[in-house]
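Reading a protein record of the kind used here takes little practice once its layout is understood. The reader may check this reading against the record printed directly beneath this paragraph.
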Amino acid sequence: MEKQKWEEILIEIEKLNALHEEGASNPKKCRDFNAHASVFLDWLEEMGAVEMADRMMDLLAGCSPKDFSPCDNRQLTKGSLERLMEKARAHIKEVTKEK
């Protein structure tokens, strides 16, 4: 996959990360995060970023938005998003080296 696509993936993960942080204290943002993450998963699959899509699927499996209590998996999801950002950055570096 080309560098531009990996950069787009990284930007989307960063947006999801920010939305997830907002969702820690706002149930609506938590549901928004879940919906955006689902759309992002579809996008990753369409682009052929299978490894990233698998990781997003794992993240979503543990994501269950709640209205009146804090997220049970907040730290786990945060860590997963950070690892996804690291993987996207590594792919960007790898593609840049190949040129």
In short: The chain has a mean pLDDT of 89.
